[in-house]
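It would be a great kindness if you could assist me with a short task in structural biology. Thank you for your consideration; the sequence and its tokens are set out here.
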Amino acid sequence: MYTLLLLSLLIISILNMALWQQKLLFSPLLIILCLLATLVSPHSRPFTTPTVTRLTDSFPHVKVDSTFSKAFGDSNIQFLNNGSMATIALDKNSGSGLVSKSRYYYGFFSAAIKLPAGLSSGVVVAFYLSNADKFPHNHDEIDIELLGHDKRNDWVFQTNIYANGSVNTGREEKFYFWFDPTQQYHYYSILWNSYHTLFMVDNIPVREFKHSSTFYPSKAMSLYCTIWDGSEWATHGGKYPVNYKYAPFNVSFSEMELSGCISDPTTTLSSCSKVTPSSGVDPLNGSDFTKLSQQQITAMDWARRKLMFYSYCNDKARFKVLPPECN
């Protein structure tokens, strides 16, 4: 990372000098330097991240092995550290995934995740809520999808929301990271309540989706942690598929947090008491969770200005009429 940073600074210095002296304009050397500049990773730039309240400090960690079941790819799943963390893998035979044993109407969901190192084109790591197994034709879904990279591009952080089966209208937004997500664990969090859905990276809000009367996820959902082959679309629209020469692709989940309104299958009513009432923290209606603080608004503005490179609300080629929330 430091090598890339030094290279970037060197390129900028040479370009500035060249332009000032007007000697390298349109020269082959200038073209080469511009191409090199495009190879510098976004996370190698010296970002100063904004200060925010650490919502992940407000909730207890849960044991992964007792909170989740194996959803698929059992042989590629390992529970470690007395069940407090898990690794799941993608190889040429199968992906793998976990699903929460409880369903939730609303809540705060978070995990510290370390992504696979090396070339990972076509690989998709997902941390998301869904009820597609119960409502195949009108399901809800709240997605964090981490999309693998090719030789020149970094991992991408993608968010998406579906409500009541609206799968034909994806509401994707994509961001670059300001760090290397393969070097250490980072927090990926979803806050979902009746007011809004909030996506966070290391507690910094990157997207807020305010709930309207016509569109918001409202049915109980399970939490999933998965890794799978997204060769058809994940990296540059499917241009770069998974290269299994670099398999297995291992992703680690730790410091898991699930707190909120648990759906009770034995009754028609939900048990919306807090999971940890002694903490005094309510992710459903507590003052810290119903709207963003000014600090969070400032941080989200920073993330969206600096790191967001795609939003469905700006895609007029895709939508003749933009979804109503874009207005």
About this structure: Confidence is low (pLDDT under 50) at residues 1-9, 23-27, 29-39, 273-278. The longest strand covers residues 249-263.
